[in-house]
């Protein structure tokens, strides 16, 4: 979903929006399939958007919202559907390229076989008692066959060069598609799916190499109240600001992601929790040091603070347990007054 709609679905008006969506679908006799519900959520939440305008156009001319129409709307206006369409198109194009290359190679093989047969025939003819005229004809035949094979080989080489370039272009395109699929649209940090995959991989590597790994979870303090007061667009501005600070503190092999809503996560391979606390304190201090202003009106929004929790991977520990411990450390920061960093070991010591 778009960033604005996603923010609404995670905010205080989410259930009101859901009720409006279902009521409107029922009133218009739109079947409440998962795809139709997603389309209608955009339609109701963003009535000025391109998707809503297209739905309005279809409804105004009496067009029935069939399954086929819904799929066409999704392919044209929903990012996830467009992404799947791009992957399918790239796959189809790659298949066509490989088919064309296979045909060119097969043709070259046939030409080589014919050339071999010609050479064999010529060899047999030379074994016989032949005159000058026969030798001339034989040389002409071999010359013609050689030129034909050379042409075929040049054509094959050109086709292979073209296919190599095309496959390289498709590879780059698919890599961009992959990046889009794993990037959060609002913050340009990794999204939740990319985080889950990376955390599982990083934990497995840490266990294999017997190296430490720390996980931090960061949350914007009082974000719901801020969002309700200033609106979702300004809330998105705050999320982008915090994510920019976090992103600067996460050069590889560190890994930063938007975990969900106003929450972020950071993976610290080969680092102990005590080392990570210093980085999180830098993030916390930088975020709170800046007085924010509303872009549209230049109103003073005050300062934003963040709370964080960090846990270090234990030997033989499952990934979900590590996440739970980092969450508990975050909740401890919230309970103890916010705008602070708490380690999982600190929570255990307090208990």
TrEMBL record:
Coiled coil: 146-180
EC number(s) given by UniProt: 2.7.7.65
PROSITE patterns found in the cross-reference section: GGDEF
InterPro entries given in the database record: Diguanylate_Cyclase, GGDEF_dom, Nucleotide_cyclase, Rev_trsase/Diguanyl_cyclase
Alphabetically ordered keywords of this record: Coiled coil
Keyword Coiled coil among UniProt keywords: yes
Alphabetized SUPFAM superfamilies for the sequence: Nucleotide cyclase
GO MF term list: diguanylate cyclase activity
Any one Gene Ontology BP term: cell adhesion involved in single-species biofilm formation
GO cellular component terms given for this protein: plasma membrane
UniProt domain GGDEF: residue ranges: 211-346
Pfam families in the cross-refs: GGDEF
Matching NCBIfam families: GGDEF
Name of the protein in its database record: diguanylate cyclase
Originating species: Phenylobacterium montanum
Classification of source organism: Bacteria, Pseudomonadati, Pseudomonadota, Alphaproteobacteria, Caulobacterales
């Amino acid at each position: 979903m778009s960033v604005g709609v996603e923010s609404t679905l995670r905010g205080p008006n989410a259930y009101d929006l859901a009720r409006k969506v279902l009521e409107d679908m029922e009133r218009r006799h739109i079947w409440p399939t998962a795809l139709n519900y997603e389309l209608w959520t955009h339609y109701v939440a963003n009535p000025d958007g391109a998707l809503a305008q297209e739905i309005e156009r279809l409804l105004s001319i009496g067009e029935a919202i069939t399954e086929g129409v819904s799929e066409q709307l999704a392919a044209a206006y929903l990012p996830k559907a467009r992404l799947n369409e791009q992957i399918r198109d790239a796959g189809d194009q790659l298949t066509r390229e490989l088919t064309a290359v296979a045909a060119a190679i097969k043709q070259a093989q046939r030409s080589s076989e014919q050339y071999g047969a010609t050479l064999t025939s010529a060899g047999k003819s030379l074994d016989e008692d032949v005159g000058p005229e026969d030798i001339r004809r034989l040389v002409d035949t071999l010359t013609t066959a050689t030129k034909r094979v050379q042409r075929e080989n040049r054509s094959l080489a050109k086709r292979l060069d073209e296919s190599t370039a095309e496959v390289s272009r498709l590879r780059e395109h698919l890599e961009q598609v992959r990046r889009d699929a794993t990037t959060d649209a609002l913050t340009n940090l990794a999204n939740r799916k990319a985080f889950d995959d990376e955390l599982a991989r990083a934990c497995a590597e840490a266990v294999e190499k017997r190296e430490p790994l720390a996980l931090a979870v960061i949350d914007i303090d009082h974000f719901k109240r801020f969002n309700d007061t200033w609106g979702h667009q300004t809330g998105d501005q705050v999320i982008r600001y915090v994510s920019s600070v976090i992103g600067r503190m996460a050069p590889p092999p560190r890994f930063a992601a938007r975990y969900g809503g106003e929450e972020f996560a950071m993976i610290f391979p080969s680092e102990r929790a005590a080392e990570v606390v210093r980085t999180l304190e830098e993030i916390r201090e930088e975020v709170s040091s800046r007085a924010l202003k509303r872009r549209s009106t230049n109103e003073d929004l005050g300062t934003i603070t963040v709370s964080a929790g960090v846990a270090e991977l234990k030997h033989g520990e499952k990934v979900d347990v590590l996440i739970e411990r980092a969450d508990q450390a975050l909740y401890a920061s919230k309970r103890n007054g916010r705008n602070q960093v708490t380690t999982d070991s600190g929570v255990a010591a307090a208990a």
